[in-house]
Hints:
GO molecular function, one term (chain B): sodium:proton antiporter activity
Largest sheet of chain A: 2 strands, antiparallel
Catalytic activity (chain B): Na(+)(in) + H(+)(out) = Na(+)(out) + H(+)(in)
Pfam family, one (chain B): Na_H_Exchanger
Keywords (chain B): Antiport, Cell membrane, Endosome, Ion transport, Membrane, Phosphoprotein, Signal, Sodium, Sodium transport, Transmembrane, Transmembrane helix, Transport
Largest interface: A-B, 89 and 84 residues
Radius of gyration of chain A: 21 Å
Oligomer: heterodimer
Main location (chain B): membrane
Shape of chain B: globular
Amino acid sequence: METALIKYLCRFIKNKNTKTDNLILFRYSFTEWPDVKESSIEATFLQKSSRHRLMLSSLTQSAVLCVSVSSSHLLRLYERFESLDRENRGHLRKEDFQAVRELSMNPVGDRIIGSFFSPGQETVDFPSFVQVLAHFRHTENDRIRDGAQKEPANSTARRLKFVFQLYDQDRDGKISRAELLQVLREMLGMQVTEEQLQSIAERAIQEANQEANQDKDDAISFDEFRKSMEKVNIDHKMSIRFLE
Amino acid sequence: MSGVWRPALFLCTLLLAVSRGPTWARTRTNDSSLNLLKTENPTHPVHGNGSESGEEPITTLPIVSWLWEEVKPPYLVALWILVCWLCKLVIEANHHVTEFIPESALLICSGFILGGMIWGADKVQTFRLTPYDFFHYFLPPIILDTGYSMPNKLFFTNLGGILIHAIIGTCWNAASLGLSLWGCQIGGAMGDLNVGLLQYLLFGSLIAAVDPVAVLAVFEQVHVNEVLFIMVFGESLLNDGVTVVLFNVFNAFVTLGGPRINAAEIIKGIISFFVVAFGGSLVGFVFGLLFALLSRCTKNIQIIEPGFLFILGYLAYLTAEMLSLSAILSIVFFGVCCQKYINANMDENSVRTMKCAVKVFANGAETMIFVFLGISAIDKSIWVWNTGFVLLTLLFILIYRFMGVFFLTWFMNLTRLVPIDYTDQVIMSYGGLRGAVAYGLAVMLDEAKIEEKKLMVSTTLIVVYFTVILQGVTMKPLVKWLKVKRAASAEKTLIEKVQNRAFEHILVAIEDISGQKGNNYLRNKWFKFEENWMSRILLRPSVRERQDKVFNVFHQLNLKDAMSYVVEGERRGSLEFIRNESAFVDFKKKFGEDMTMSMPDIMADMSDDRSAASSTRKESVPSVSLEVHEQAMRGTRAAEGLDSHHLLQQHLYKGRKQHRHRYSRSHFDINKDENEIQEIFQRTMKSRLESFKSGKMGVAPPKTITKHTRKEQQQKLQNKKSKSRLSGDEDFEFSEGDSASGYDTSFPVRGGYRPGAGIENPAFMPDVDLPLQIPPWLEDVDSVAPSQRAQVRLPWTPSNLRRLSPLRISTRSSDSFNLAEAPGDHQDDQLPPPPTPPPHRDGDVV
């Protein structure tokens, strides 16, 4: 159901481009948030026939989205999505992201861009866009989650996974030395020599291995990564207020 | 504890030595009421004394003579500045102390000590801060600095909230305090005081404003998040203007007297409030624009052009003062409005000079203010104590500040996209420090009209000390305790360290992607207007071109180059395969030969580099270091760890937040940042180009290539072209790209890059690799030149190599794109002479 909905929404957004004049704004909101619930999704068309609305509302009666973003923010993100999508294709491609000026001045900018694209995908549509951003939503401490529910994107584990995958570019579940070096080189200025980088990477891997009392391979596994990041308050560091 | 005492002792001895100067001078001249800072009328005594000494008959030519009277006022001023700055020096010498106690509090305390010494010597306080000096000499540089160094974007983004707090909040503070005190007096809480309602309101208005000097001094050391910072800081800046206006209005009311105030007068007061506030801002704005215009043509007097900032700023201040408009607002907006244009128009050195000088003045003035705030306290004659009045004032100030902030933020949060949460509100409330502005206004009160002036002055001083010292000291623990979002603390493991910094970058990137600032309609309008009109008028033409185009041009060039490269390459490659299957091997060989022939240095470089790099990476370093680590003692290990930590600490790129949006009165380090950004920018652009190419190359399935005939290929190209035309020329169809390209984005390390994994077409492999070997920041003309030569020799070599460095954006930028768009012989005549790969030379290869 969930994927059906997402697909539908995608299609919907795409269609919008062909009939730009009568579908001006698309808005859907989750009545219940922050938790993922059976949520009814309401679509508001500013100038649209009721047929579409009916279709959509029936479709979404029992839909579950694992995107936990509140409606007003969703709307705002959609506006942002549109403004990034300068040619109204209904999906974003790498170049759309790359056109954001600030990103090219961010040492990890291209990595972040890469993280929006799942393997084998050249484009990212709105739902996935939001899902990636949902990693950064602010968490409330007092939230009670029952086990049956799907884990929201901004749980600590999923955040860690997200960060881990920023390093682990080939997605083999390990941060190899080369991958770590690559990150280091991006993060450090050019003032550092190759040898220094090597030794830093070396030490980092060693530390991680020691921390987890694990095998001394030449890479950092996810477990090791998690252990070495234990003291870092991920929830605190990886939340952006406006995504609440 | 000894660390605390040592500097204190040093301070005492130092000050004893220094303060002997003025006291001795004073006894000599028998000038009992010397007021150091009254430099505005220094001439009379000097002149008189001078003529006196002239009366003595000269019997012989004096070799040297004692001319103290001539130099006394400036001499004392200079001496005091020196003393105050030395105080700061002593305080800052020990970071253990300033970590817990804010510098401003320490400066006030050293002022106490200084004042005590003077009092001990004279039995009367000879030096004090006069309102005139404060408002004319000390305040302007500070406010100018804040305006000039204001993080504009942040400021205007939050302008609504700031204004609400600055105007409504201040009025609320003033009114509630005045009314409550009045109520308490009627209730009999303060004994017998002859103060009317209007006087209370006047008092309330002068003490209502949060002081920018004090706030900044404290908040600079407590690294809170930027929104919170700008809210408190912006409010403190603007409400100074508000409070001065309020003060003037109530002062006039007091002069008028109770009975003669009717509705009309009150309305006039309100109108005057707005006129004064907006008029002041307007004056500043006009002066700012004037300055921007002026800076367009100061190229020939570069050596003094930084001075214009101060002169025009000061003139803006004085003009507003002259027109009885808000001088503070005037100079704030002067700085805010001119900063962008003058920074762009003026020479880099001038800009740097201005930035430094403005900090020198502001920081110096701030130091003086705090020291003199301390000195002023040591004076028996100003102190009148009324426990009820003082304590109630303190209490009400704190309570009403909290109430006001919470109510206004609640109100603002109704419309705010990003609500300000409770902890931030607490800090905002608690950050309501009062400072020298309140004191200056209190001293300006007219004793003839307000009998309890002394009480008010001493209460103001108490409030200032209480807020600056007590709240200042407790601010940091409070911020810690409430876990307000702030800068990171110590990290343990290396990966943590890297990751912590990475988090900053990630957050920034995500904010950029998700457009944190939103697409505000008004802001867009303003940007357009600014772009179209303001920049055109106020910026030098050369600057304007340089400014906004660099990124776009570079970005597009990169894409175009990549595009043409791919198109060219595909056609070449595919054709080659079509004609001759066996060329597969030849091709590579030939290519390699050509390469080595045309650019031996690079090839050598490349192979060297690669082999060296790979060997170090794969063998030498790991094994060696592993060995070392396994065999080494704990000690060396720790040392090495320290070393790595230090390295990281030193060289990790700073997150944007840390440097861009922070205003600091005492630091500025803009240049390094810009270099870093440049570096990152270039690298990113390069890596994008590379990844694009490699993705494209690695992916293009050979099957399809072989299938296409030349005609088809061209048709396809044309289709593609028309498609991309439809969709706008800055974008390209990447339909053939593949996921792998997404993760090969690395430029410098090719660890993630697996040679041979996706690359079927050997012709492009060396080429893909080639630019990787030349880091863009190391690049210079020498390393680019061979590639140009190469282009002539190798028609299929893309034209991009000549543009490896962003400075080399040429007018030929669109050539390759044209070629890509319309491959045909008729294009020939449009080609510029050498470097582009002419498509009609297809024939040679085919």
